[in-house]
Fold this sequence. Notes:
Helices cover 77% and strands 0% of the residues. Helix 8 (164-176) runs antiparallel to helix 9 (182-194), helix 11 packs antiparallel against helix 12 and helix 16 runs antiparallel to helix 17. Among the domains are: 15-101, Alpha Horseshoe (Serine Threonine Protein Phosphatase 5, Tetratricopeptide repeat); 125-213, Tetratricopeptide repeat domain (Serine Threonine Protein Phosphatase 5, Tetratricopeptide repeat, Alpha Horseshoe). The radius of gyration is 36 Å and the shape is elongated. The chain has helices spanning 2-32, 36-47, 56-69, 82-96, 103-126, 130-143, 148-160, 164-176, 182-194, 198-211, 216-229, 232-245, 250-264, 280-297, 302-325, 331-358, 363-376, 379-390.
Amino acid sequence: MKNLTILSLFVFTFNFTWAQKAKVQTAYSYMKAEEFDKAKEAIDEASVNEASAVMPKCWYYRGLIYQSLYKNRKYGALAEDPLGEAYKSFSKALELDPKYEYKDEIKAALMSINANMFNEGLTAFNAKDFNKAYKSFDSLLKLNPNDTSVLINTALAADRSGNNEKAIELYEKIVAMNYKDVAIYTSLIHKYKETGKNDKANALLKAARQAFPADNNLMIEELNNVLGSGDDKKAAEMLASAIQQDPKNASLYFAAGTVYDKLANPRDAKGVELPKPTNFDELVNKSADYYKGAISNNPEYFDANYNLGALYFNQGAELANRANQLPLSKQKEVDALNKQAAEKLKMAEPYLEKALQINPTDESTLQSLKQLYVRTGSTEKYEAIKKQLEKK
Length: 392
């Protein structure tokens, strides 16, 4: 009786094992009939059973079934990540038997899945659906963790989608790989700054400047740090160097103009004017030259036109004020100062008028021109500006 019981148990176990292995073939049959819901149910059951989970065929079929679900109108919703599951399944089949009879078909399928997932991410990225792009690239990255191009695309998608933590993690990984792309360093520097990691940003900027000494973008990044620190003299030196490397960059000329403008007209921390430096004229002339350089490269540069006009206007107003403060006994000096003032005001006029042409509603420009026309006696122009201001 005891032997019969053992035999019965053996028969039961054999039948159960055979049944589970049969599930694999059943799943394949359902797949061929395009009954993918039943195929998925059968292959999922087989893939978790000890008897069939060790069969390369089980995973090969599972890969085929899940790959078939991708973009399937009727059954596509059955799997959240059909391509990812297909990739894992095909990989598992090769892991169980690297010489499996369908190894070539599996390798071709893996390449196709990679291409599909990459294209999904790229299409979403170009459509500015950065969350979807990140999800696609991240799924691909999990399957190909050491693929540099996938890593970069995932980092960029994470960055654009606002996932700062993930973007930083991925950018750091790329930098650690010693990947020679200055854009990665710049992006990580910006992410550090956005998240308040200024020490890390400065350290990385220093390393990047050493790795890419000729890169103008990094120079400008360092320059912005210097400008933010208030070290105008160092900023002026760096700007001169940056302009040499990028002589057509109007923004660099404008920045240099503002730096020399500040050096010529220093103020304390509260904004109170300090005494003019002994080399005031030299600094002002340099400021004007740089503003002209900005306008030469970009005639429609509003800020450069306005600042240069304001620079000349302020010089003219200061000369006129100095003349007014002199006694009548120094008429020759008064006349000389007034002549100089008139020349500076005349120099200011075309730049302020150009600024107004670029931005006709800018109130600062309107007010500056109103004061200018009063000083130059341009009655008609004054009345026109006055009317324009009254409409605001």
